[in-house]
UniProtKB/TrEMBL annotation:
The organism's taxonomic lineage, starting at the top: Bacteria, Bacillati, Actinomycetota, Actinomycetes, Cryptosporangiales
Pfam families, alphabetized: CopC (PF04234), CopD (PF05425)
Record organism: Cryptosporangium japonicum
Region (Disordered): 430-475
Domain Copper resistance protein D per the UniProt entry, residue ranges: 344-414
InterPro entries referenced in this protein's UniProt entry, alphabetically: CopC/D, CopC_dom, Cu-R_CopD_dom, Cu-Rt/internalin_Ig-like, Ig_E-set
Sequence ranges of Basic residues compositional bias: 447-458
Protein's name according to its UniProt entry: Copper resistance protein CopC
């Protein structure tokens, strides 16, 4: 019955991991770099025609090959050669063909931000005279938008990221427990399986993210995975971090084989590695952890010298804590003797306490950086990143409540000196225990073996069973089983925290979200809307104060439509403010006017064009003024 329950528990945990990986991990790609300015400015009318278009971003970006275009009114791509980057990679230069014709041009771009996430958008400018766009008006997108990502690529990469986190947890837990707390008499087959499973998940997850980085960045599908794409990904910081992680996983294989070796025939106990092994595990482990911040936001934060160590500590403490709980729940508590637990549980309780403290401390530091300091406290509520952080805090708090309950039980039940832990005397002879406590640990173990041999000479040669052997009362055994249930709950809740950590890696930090909004506000408003059977192009700075408005009318084929009279209005209902829009014609289909917008908000504009004595069309458009 006990084995069946354990199998059910394991199956539930595995299912929870899988469901959460799909549910939380598959979040859409978010824009992290922001477009801060363009030359020519978006929506502007320039003369003469430009020979180069430049875009200024908030951080270093990499142009996606073949995804940066400047579309002429006739639909042709007028980019000459490949775009280049200057100013540390934050400025993209797009060379254009000479002799550009008059009309409106669409700049469509897709770049990769420094943290590996794709960014896309589009805007327009006109050479001498506005005209209809040579591409779909829906592609015009002032500012920076979330780049479209194939659902298959997005889903597999999200699961890969989650697998990498879960693998790190399953690898770190057995190593910490086996090297520090594992009883000598127990075989390490179970923890070995968990550790190697963790190694496999971490390697597979890392490889999955690396292989899919190219189609994730350029909007391809799973069928677009290629060796050349992997090579392009390795040229970026994120790709290099993932490649280094894979190399470290290969390098750690001989160390794991030695540290996790089974008991040898000459009696060498499993898991009791020497100082060199422990140093190698520590060095390789820290190096492995450092790859996580460089494959995410921390490497590109405003203060990487703080955020990189913080994320390294955060991921490491999470892995030790949750991984140790997995080994404790499924291997130590069911197999260890009660007196062995008297040694193990108090020590683990202290380790877990410090791991949780490091987790919270580093998490607070990183969150503080990513929301932009004290001024960004409101971003915890107003941004997706902040909302995920708060959700993670709630789940982490639930784990800490369960953990505090378990820690209190351990302190009450096992508040005895460590020297008594393996003593063979009856618990009712405290005077003998006191004598034993003064002896060295080795002498204590020798005395315990001799005492046991005299008490049960016939059973001394029989191997110790690996099943639970609670020498105390049945009530104590029940209490340990309840403790195991608490630990299993911590593991299940930890799976949720891992899923939220996966989602946070793929969501723009709060500071970036605000930067994107500010950048979008600094760019003029430019759009094309249907006006009756025709198309109206609207260009407006969209700022508080006096704005120069441009209105241009075309038919569906892009030919100019003569306008007899322009009129319009603007209203901010929430402030009870309204004004007329007066536009004077410059050409037969192009008018310019001045409109005063004194207050920020979502203004409702109405534009009207009379094209004949009987044909008049109006369109309503809401434009945000900042």
């Amino acid at each position: 019955m006990g084995k069946r329950v354990r199998k059910v528990q394991r199956a539930l945990v595995v299912a929870l991991f899988a469901l959460l990986a799909i549910g939380f991990g598959a979040s859409p790609a978010q824009a992290h770099a922001t477009l801060e300015g363009t030359d020519p400015p978006t929506g502007s009318i320039v003369d003469p025609a430009p020979t180069v278009v430049t875009m200024n971003f908030s951080e270093r970006v990499t142009p996606v090959k073949g995804r940066i275009k400047v579309i002429a009114p006739d639909g042709a791509n007028v980019v000459q050669g490949e775009p280049t980057t200057v100013n540390g990679g934050a400025r993209v230069r797009i060379p254009l063909k000479s002799g550009l014709s008059d009309g409106t041009y669409l700049v469509s771009y897709r770049v990769i931000s420094a943290d590996g996430h794709p960014v896309s958008g589009g805007y327009t400018f006109s050479s001498r005279v506005p005209s209809a766009l040579g591409a779909k008006a829906s592609e015009v997108n002032s500012g920076t938008a979330s780049a479209s990502v194939d659902n298959g690529v997005r889903g597999v990469q999200s699961v890969s990221r989650y697998a990498a986190y879960a693998g790190l947890v399953l690898l770190a837990g057995p190593l910490v427990i086996v090297l520090g707390l594992w009883p000598r008499r127990l075989a390490t087959a179970g923890p070995r399986r968990v550790a190697w499973t963790g190694w496999g998940l971490l390697a597979a997850g890392t490889l999955g993210v690396l292989v899919l980085q190219a189609p994730y960045a350029d909007g391809g599908t799973l069928a677009d995975v290629s060796v050349s794409g992997i090579g392009e990904a390795i040229d970026e910081t994120v790709g290099r971090a993932l490649l280094i992680r894979l190399a470290l996983l290969v390098a750690v294989i001989p160390v794991l084989i030695r540290v996790l070796r089974p008991a040898s025939k000459d009696g060498d106990a499993p898991g009791w590695a020497g100082p060199v092994d422990r140093v190698l595990v520590a060095v390789l482990g820290v190096a492995l952890l450092i790859t996580f911040p460089f494959a995410g936001h921390a490497g590109q934060s405003p203060a990487p010298i703080v955020s990189v160590p913080a994320i390294t500590l955060h991921v490491g403490s999470m892995a030790v804590w949750l991984g140790g709980l997995v080994v404790l729940a499924f291997y130590l508590l069911p197999r260890a003797k009660y007196r062995e637990l008297e040694v193990i549980l108090p020590v683990w309780s202290r380790w877990a306490f410090w791991a949780v403290g490091a987790l919270v401390f580093s998490g607070v530091i990183e969150t503080f950086l990513e929301i932009g300091g004290f001024r960004g406290i409101d971003r915890l509520v107003n941004t997706t990143y902040g909302q995920l952080v708060l959700t993670k805090v709630i789940w982490l708090g639930a784990i800490m409540v369960v953990a505090a309950n378990a820690r209190a039980w351990i302190n009450r039940r096992f508040g005895v000196p460590v020297a008594y832990a393996f003593a063979a005397e009856d618990p009712e002879t405290p005077s003998k225990k006191a004598d034993k406590a003064e002896k060295p640990a080795a002498a204590t173990k020798t005395a315990a073996k001799k005492t046991k041999a005299k008490a049960t000479p016939k059973k001394a040669k029989e191997p110790e069973p690996e099943t639970s052997d609670f020498s105390a009362s049945g009530r104590a055994a029940d209490e340990v089983r309840r403790l195991r249930s608490r630990v299993a709950i911590e593991v299940a809740l930890g799976a949720v925290v891992l899923a939220l950590a996966t989602a946070l890696v793929q969501v723009a930090p709060a500071r970036s979200a605000d930067d994107a909004a500010a950048a979008a506000a600094a760019l003029p408003y430019s759009a094309q809307v249907d006006l009756g059977p025709n198309v109206l192009q609207i260009d407006l700075p969209a700022r508080i104060g006096r704005n120069e408005l441009h209105l241009t009318l075309f038919d569906k084929n892009g030919l100019p439509v003569k306008v007899e009279e322009w009129s319009g209005s603007a209203e901010l209902a929430t402030a009870n403010v309204s004004t007329d829009v007066v536009a004077l014609p410059l050409t037969e289909n192009h008018a310019v006017g001045q409109v005063e917008l004194p207050i920020a908000g979502d203004w409702k504009f109405v534009f009207t064009a009379r094209t004949s004595d009987i044909d008049q069309y109006s369109v309503e458009k809401t434009i945000t003024i900042r």
